[in-house]
User: Which sequence fits this backbone?
């Protein structure tokens, strides 16, 4: 029984992992883009972006999942997500990407703005272009600053993926819960915790390694 | 022909006029010190020369070439400013070394990027020159250290080597020792003094009066955004003509 449940939960965890990885793949670059928007000198860009960040960070992710999944159907009178598993997965992914991109964008903004203006000026007076200054001087300092807060968000994301269950996206909690109905046992649901724990442990080790790798220099 | 000619520079921030009609010139091989109280516009003037600020009005000429003319729009474009900056080097009060590069890498970074662009990449020559400069700064045993492993005085000497690596026509110092402990000030001043002895063309904004008097050939006293008095440094420091200059110098001595 234990082996059977483990195997089944592993299958469910694959759903969790897919959502986790794809969310990161899309939300990290989108977050960088949003952070540039939120720092733009153009008010027509900066204000709407900051408004969106406020809304996304100010409302529960679970509510955003429901709005994104059901909203288009109510407004457009057609379900743009389709009815199958894939449709629900894409809807959940969209909600996660938007939500995490907004959180990441604030981390990026904080990281970029915390680099002293003297670093830009030193690069400029040495005849470097703005692009050279950003990639050769600024970027690594930003990365060093944002690794700890990013690792926090990423570990939160591992657990947040369970919220996708609300729109019936297939992942590990869903799988664990299914044993209640099919076999009348609840321990597989509790057992899912081990999977989360092991995976976030792995991520903690990985981020610790990155932090150590960046430990060769210090920033004021 | 003067190496640097500054004519009628004006600069305002918001509604405060920080530079009001600044004009001066200097010759090749001269060291010019700019003194004055905080807020007199010294740093803004240096920043204008290095194009970190754009003057509202005025002309900047180096070796007869007009680098900036407020009347000519094209002299304000980003691309043209980049090349013009290379006529000047700037050493900051807060060093501003790049923390993720070693001392040697800090010195080599900009020359490597520039040579790659012009297609004349000669990494060995750049490296040799960088090592020479660091040696000249007394840092030959610190070339592989990162900035956080160096004292403030050592960091500032790396910053001087970094500025010199690009062969600027005029090297500017913006209060180079103000962020240093008194005991570390000496080593940086010694380096600047030796540069002056080698006839490096320099503009030094400083609060170290006796140093400025000794090292510079020419001195400028700024007050409230204008050049109140300028002249050979021994004259300006020993026999200031203006009442305000006397007041400023004697206040420092007491």
Assistant:
């Amino acid at each position: 029984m234990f082996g059977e449940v483990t195997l089944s939960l592993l299958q469910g965890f694959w759903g969790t992992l897919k959502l986790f990885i794809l969310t990161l793949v899309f939300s990290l670059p989108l977050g960088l883009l949003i952070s540039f928007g939120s720092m733009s000198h153009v008010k027509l860009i900066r204000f709407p972006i900051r408004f969106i960040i406020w809304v996304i960070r100010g409302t529960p992710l679970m509510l955003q999942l429901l709005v994104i999944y059901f909203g288009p159907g109510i407004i457009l009178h057609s379900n743009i997500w389709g009815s199958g598993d894939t449709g629900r997965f894409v809807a959940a992914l969209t909600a996660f990407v938007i939500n995490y991109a907004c959180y990441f964008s604030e981390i990026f903004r904080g990281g970029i703005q915390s680099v002293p203006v003297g670093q830009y000026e030193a690069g400029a007076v040495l005849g470097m272009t703005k692009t050279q200054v950003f990639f050769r001087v600024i970027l690594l300092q930003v990365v060093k600053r944002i690794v700890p807060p990013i690792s926090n968000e990423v570990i939160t994301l591992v657990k947040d993926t369970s919220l996708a269950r609300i729109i019936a996206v297939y992942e590990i909690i869903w799988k664990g819960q299914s044993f209640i109905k099919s076999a009348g046992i609840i321990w597989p649901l509790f057992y899912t915790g081990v999977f989360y724990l092991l995976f976030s442990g792995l991520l903690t080790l990985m981020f610790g390694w990155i932090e150590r790798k960046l430990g060769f220099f210090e920033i004021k | 022909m003067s190496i640097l000619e500054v004519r009628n520079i004006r600069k305002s921030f918001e509604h405060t006029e920080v530079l009001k009609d600044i004009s001066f010139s200097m010759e090749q091989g001269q060291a010019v010190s700019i003194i004055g109280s905080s807020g007199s516009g010294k740093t803004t003037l240096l920043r204008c020369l290095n194009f970190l600020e754009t003057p509202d009005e005025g002309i900047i000429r180096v070796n007869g070439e007009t680098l900036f003319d407020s009347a000519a729009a094209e002299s304000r474009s980003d691309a043209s400013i980049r090349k013009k900056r290379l006529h000047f080097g700037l050493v900051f009060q807060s060093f501003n070394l790049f923390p993720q590069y070693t001392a040697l890498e800090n010195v080599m970074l900009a020359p490597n990027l520039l040579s790659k662009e012009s297609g004349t990449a000669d990494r060995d020559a750049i490296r040799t020159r960088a090592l020479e400069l660091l040696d000249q700064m007394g840092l030959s045993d610190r070339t592989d250290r990162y900035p956080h492993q160096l004292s403030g005085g050592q960091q500032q000497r790396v910053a001087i080597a970094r500025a010199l690596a690009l062969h600027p026509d005029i090297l500017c110092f913006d209060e180079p020792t103000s962020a240093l402990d008194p005991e570390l000030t000496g080593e940086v001043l010694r380096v600047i003094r030796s540069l002056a002895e080698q006839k490096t063309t320099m503009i030094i904004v400083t609060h170290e009066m006796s140093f400025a008097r000794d090292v510079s050939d020419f001195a400028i006293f700024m007050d409230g955004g204008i050049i109140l008095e300028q002249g050979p440094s021994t004259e300006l420091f020993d026999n200031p003509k203006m009442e305000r200059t006397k007041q400023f110098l004697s206040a420092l001595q007491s």
Remarks:
- Strands of chain B lie at 4-13, 16-26, 31-35, 57-62, 65-69, 88-91, 170-174, 202-205, 218-223, 226-232.
- The mean pLDDT of chain B is 90.
